[in-house]
């Protein structure tokens, strides 16, 4: 086999794939194409087109011999050249094209920006079924429609399915059955009983008018987005929770749909609940979901229906940014600050940043909406790279909650709660309102400790303490998932003196349950919440009002409006504001503001109480006195001084190995390459490490990392490109590059 070892940085031919070929076009060469294969190799390979056959278009999938096997690759470019000594394509899977040109261009950009093997970039983009080479053929789409009359007895699942179908109020597509929490077996039984009909349906997109007029700020925001459509710009829509951002998105989408175009809405992982989807469907007659919990065949089907223009509105999580469209005219990223938009393994892309790039490639506007925009995003707006629209008031009459700092120095906390806080909760509950108690730790206690000898329960395969769980009882590693039995006595000194130290959601649940035995209590964390349907059902109960306590993790920070909540308690803000990770204060402030945003709707204003041992903390002060904006200014000034993003470009090199010393050796070589490259460039820079990762051992493997900072982004990318070419690899080490890392600690 013949291949050229060239970095993509020097590949103008790849970059121009948009001009040289496209779906459906048959460029004439003498039959050599470049194929990206699904292997961790930082290059493309030349293959010969079978004699007498048309050249497959760029973006088509092909089956090609590779090593001793055959793989499915993607045609990334074509070029004149000799077929001499080249291997020949075995099968052209998509003779009429598959990935549209904008996605091929995006893939090439991704491989360069994230310094990731191009074949694996295509692998990340495609649904698994497509990756395996399944033909891009659409099956007729089945829908289910409940008959208006009839009931089921003694079959609770069927009854639940039937009422869910009826509540939906129209044919339910296969893709929505699961998000609605409908049991498939129950559905089949209902079809047999004739209570549900199977119909074939194509969504009929039409725009329904909104039930209310926009307020001035919303109208202005819609105008800014319309202006951005003119020059394909990015707009930051900064609006407090409940200020009507979704309504603004829907107006902008309505413009697009009315003209027959398509719109893509990205939402955080947890955001894609039936509620969200129903809202879009109601307005546009249809909206297709796309998220990782769906079976892959369904995802592929949705993909193809976006590609052929059938779906006009796609609402999806992170990977939906890679869906193909025939006529995409608007991209919305809702809650753009959310960490779930950053993929944490493989191709470590940020769906938000990719959205901005894709918008540029396609020449369409991108809207980044949030109540708490990322500091990076605010900086882009401040520099004039992004347009900006503000929604400062809540739509309707609701007022924003007030912040109160609760200084707990010198006080004894019981199960993480101060007496004062319990008193405040009591007041609100007595008045018939709901209280939300937030702590970002699941389990009972984050540490299990022996009070006689100081022994701590630790994971055998990670460098981490075990979390004590009460229900079901035991010790668990939150990093590798291992479970351990809870010993009756200390394994080290045999004393019966093991205690849980610190406060998790389960501890709060039992403490508050004992404190307020007559008040219904709901816990929300990853251990209690299986599936969005159940999640939604509980929120539905809470929206009906009446006193209740909600205890939970960041799950409570997202998406749901809780009109009866009048008090929010933040148990431990300090661990976030004082963490060593440079992004921790930003994350903490966003969480607090988002949780606070759930509270106080309509006639009942809310209060947010924050317990702290560090009441003078500058970030905390700024947040409670001036809101998220004030916090953002304080923290941005700090980042500027420290030379951290957004005032520098950052990457982390991570290495992992079962062998002692192997990671350090690879990272030392990497550092040498990087230093040499950075020294040749301009601007300030730094390479820190190799140092043990914050968790130096995880699942039995040793982990090290290097941090790379450069005041000029091009210098960083040039150095990383050099690193891609360098021979630093060792067979017993897995290493990766993370550009714009989310977690550095
Ligand atoms: P956000 O997305 O910013 O949290 P939403 O768009 O969900 O806010 O709006 C919050 C609530 O206010 C929704 O119930 C919505 O229907 C309502 N709403 C939005 N805009 C208006 C408006 N102009 N007049 C009255 N109610 C509105
Ligand atoms: Zn002990
Ligand atoms: Zn572990």
Question: Which helices and strands occur, and which strands form pairs?
Answer:
Elements: H1 12-15, H2 17-20, E1 32-36, E2 45-48, E3 61-66, E4 69-79, E5 91-92, H3 101-113, H4 118-125, H5 128-131, E6 142-146, H6 156-168, E7 172-173, H7 174-177, H8 184-192, E8 196-200, H9 216-231, E9 234-239, H10 245-258, E10 262-266, H11 274-284, E11 288-290, H12 296-307, E12 313-316, E13 328-334, H13 351-362, E14 366-370, H14 375-382, E15 387-391, E16 402-407, H15 419-430, E17 434-438, E18 447-450, E19 467-469, E20 474-476, E21 483-484, E22 498-501, H16 505-515, E23 521-524, H17 532-543, E24 548-552, E25 565-570, H18 574-577, H19 584-596, E26 607-612, H20 618-642, E27 649-657, H21 662-680, E28 685-698, E29 701-710, H22 713-725, E30 733-739
Helix pairs in contact: 3-4, 3-13, 6-8, 9-10, 19-20, 21-22
The site of one zinc ion has 8 residues, from loops.
| Structural class estimated from helices and strands | alpha/beta
Bound molecules: adenosine-5'-diphosphate, zinc ion
In the sheet with the most strands, the strands line up as 11-12-10-13-14-9-15
The N- and C-terminal alpha carbons lie at a distance of 43 Å
Mean pLDDT: 88
Indicate the low-confidence ranges by residue numbers: 1-29
Tell me what portion of residues adopts beta-strand conformation.
15-25%
Whole-angstrom Rg: 27 Å
Overall body shape: globular
